[in-house]
Amino acid sequence: MDKIQSDCPYPGCFFCVMKEANPSKRRASVLKFFRELPSQDDDGQVLPISGLWNTAMAHPNDPEFINLGIFECMAALIWKGLKNRRWLAHDQNIYIPYYAAHIIGSYTMNMEEFAERAVRAGVIPPLVELLRGRLTWVEQRVAVRALGHLATYPSTFPAVADHGEVLELAIQLASSSLEIVYSHFYQFVDRRLGYHCDLLTRGMGGVEMESRKAEEWASQLQCWSLQLINCFAFKPEFLHDICKADFLIKLPGMWGGLVNENSPAGVGLLRTICQSKVGRGHVANIPGTIDALCNIARSSDDWQYMAVDCLIWLVQDASTSHKVIDKVAPTLIDLANISTLGDYKKLGDTIVTVLQEFMQQSGNSRSTISAQPKAEIDELLRSKQSLKLEKSMPKEDLHIKQAAALVVKLEGNSMFSSGNIAGAAEKYSEALALCPMKSKKERVVLYSNRAQCYLLLQQPLAAISDATRALCLHSPVNRHAKSLWRRAQAYDMLGLAKESLLDAILFINECSQSNDPDLSLKQNKVPDYAERLVKKQMRAAWLFREAALKHGGVHCEGDASDAFGQEGDDSEWETASESDAENDARGEADDETEWKNDGHQEDFCEKS
């Protein structure tokens, strides 16, 4: 390659080439550079590759380098790193396979035309070798990312699928990625490879930043593996390979963590699986997966709607409904008053219709559903009928029902204050039976109050059910602070750390925006009880926790300080249900009441 600028010490310098003012000369020089680079052994090759990496991320839709052979060059460089370990160990060449695979992934993430060019350039075989783990987990991460982009497009998916081991490797990686990153990088600081640390932090941080970034990259490695599997899951012929019981049971727990909340992760893959009859058949046979989907459907997870989709499809399918209805019906009933969620505009109406159709189709075979969920479905259908009747009910009659519900509610508040928790719960139930269905704000309070009673009565499942109903009735959905806190405590009682954590964080967010003096953050300080619960659940839901337990990083439930790089007396980590739940509950029951009446609001109660 001709020297472009006489003052540059490196003949054929890529950066000098790019400064060429004449477009034709620049293109010819870049073309030559891409052709010759893989065969050269000069020092400093990583510099132009890192420059291309930056360009690919900043301008992934720019076709210039695509037309000049960048894919062929990157594929050749990956092969060179795999086959020539002496070259790989020289200078800074160890970085090159990572950058090359990342460049391929960046240029193929948006444009199907670019993906087709990449496949013709032969990028898939070297990417598959990286996916096998021929180098390290860092290269696996960018390889699975690139293959996931290539598998997304109809025209290039067959080329990925032709490599039969890709799906199996992706499943293995999704299942083991967190353990791999923990044991190969996170666990032993003194054994971390230097180039891994540099790639993670770009040379800008120390051990603490390396650890944080490692958790983020481990989550991405898992989530991108799931994304690749998801491309296969749309094809029925691959579902039997995907839907193995030991994999399906793990999927709901693959959630991306707080560091990668933008990925639907495991529940996203389950949703794809449940779109097909074959997939639903497999999922319905795994009770643990159904339980986990119910927990996600009731949670404040961003991907809640995906779990709801799965449950609805399972109930609508006559071949699976009888297997799941006893577990799924209570969850769907709790969600039956929700309005908008995800793409759903009238989700509650959809749920009622699905359950009603199930009961009609069951006909004489109602023995397929147990007595309790059957009674709950019947009660739900009656309540919806009551709502229709209320529309034609005289306003005076509605006012009488409202006033009666208020009286009973106040009786419940009094019992609650005197310590008769069981009696208060019964009164709130009576008030709910009297309260008009259209009086949503009052029903939110009643459900939330009864949830608090169930907490104190050590009935977390009932508390979760009532708190969920309150959150569904509230506007906006999932934003009633007290119900979020009560459900967070109930999840804590059941050991469901992730669900408890998400509710506790959302509770704090709601408090920061609340005008309620009982909830608003004083001096912008998070309440101690909420901070304690969040910290506890962050430990319990830590992405590397299972790997740390397996490899000796965490020895017991209360000995996680070293693994988290935190110090503290474990005795402070009380279960909220045993301490703060009681303190919160003993204060007073909620007494916020707003009734709509001819366009204005009347306050039918005062603080008791």
TrEMBL record:
<dbReference type="Pfam" id="PF26524">
    <property type="entry name" value="ARM_7"/>
</dbReference>
<protein>
    <recommendedName>
        <fullName>ARM repeat N-terminal plant domain-containing protein</fullName>
    </recommendedName>
</protein>
<feature type="compositionally biased region" description="Acidic residues">
    <location>
        <begin position="567"/>
        <end position="582"/>
    </location>
</feature>
<feature type="domain" description="ARM repeat N-terminal plant">
    <location>
        <begin position="6"/>
        <end position="244"/>
    </location>
</feature>
<feature type="region of interest" description="Disordered">
    <location>
        <begin position="559"/>
        <end position="608"/>
    </location>
</feature>
<feature type="compositionally biased region" description="Basic and acidic residues">
    <location>
        <begin position="583"/>
        <end position="608"/>
    </location>
</feature>
<dbReference type="InterPro" id="IPR011989">
    <property type="entry name" value="ARM-like"/>
</dbReference>
<dbReference type="InterPro" id="IPR011990">
    <property type="entry name" value="TPR-like_helical_dom_sf"/>
</dbReference>
<dbReference type="InterPro" id="IPR016024">
    <property type="entry name" value="ARM-type_fold"/>
</dbReference>
<dbReference type="InterPro" id="IPR058868">
    <property type="entry name" value="ARM_7"/>
</dbReference>
